[in-house]
Design goal:
Order of helices and strands: HHEEEEH
Distance between the termini: 71 Å
Number of helices: 3
Structural class: alpha+beta
Number of strands: 4
Strand content: 15-25%
Largest sheet: 4 strands, antiparallel
Radius of gyration: 30 Å
Helix content: 40-55%
Shape: rod-shaped
Strand order of the largest sheet: 1-2-3-4
């Protein structure tokens, strides 16, 4: 160190260097790598959590329409031709849904472009001996965006 100070620091000592810079770098580099790994895991998980929370509202609205279709079909003995003939008293607007339609009992849910859900949810009723069952096999959304009644089918 003394030779270095004489040659490069004009003989002035910059202090007693004992390798603390190396130790600090050796400690900070692994810590920053660990934080980077945590962020790589946590950010996608958080985004998935937010999307599921936003879809919960959509699924509740879809359940309401499904129930209204069931009630209409049981009372009128035919499938509802449109959403307007259903007795829906609640608010069916959502920041996630661009539009919701009913066509002969089939429920079509079209998502907004900024919702993070790509595709459409298509829920088809089927009359069975035990009542009405629902089929979502024609939906084009990801599996995670399907209502729980639809996920049990796959």
């Amino acid at each position: 160190q003394d030779e270095w100070n004489k040659k490069y620091n004009q003989g002035v000592s910059a202090g007693k260097e004992k390798g603390t810079v190396v130790v600090v770098i050796a400690v900070l580099f692994p810590l920053s790598a660990i934080f980077g790994i945590f962020a790589a895991i946590a950010i996608p998980a958080y985004q998935s959590y937010i999307q599921k929370a936003q879809l919960a509202e959509t699924h509740m609205m879809t359940d309401t329409v499904m129930m209204a279709v069931e009630i209409y079909a049981l009372s009128e003995q035919k499938w509802p031709e449109s959403i307007e003939v259903l007795d829906l008293s609640g608010d069916l607007t959502s920041s996630q849904i661009r539009s919701m339609e009913v066509d002969n009992g089939v429920i079509y849910v079209h998502f907004n472009d900024d919702s993070g859900v790509y595709g459409n949810l298509v829920i088809t009723p089927e009359s069975t001996g035990q009542g009405i069952s629902w089929d979502c096999s024609q939906s084009t959304v990801e599996y995670t965006a399907l209502p729980s009644k639809c996920r049990m089918q796959f």
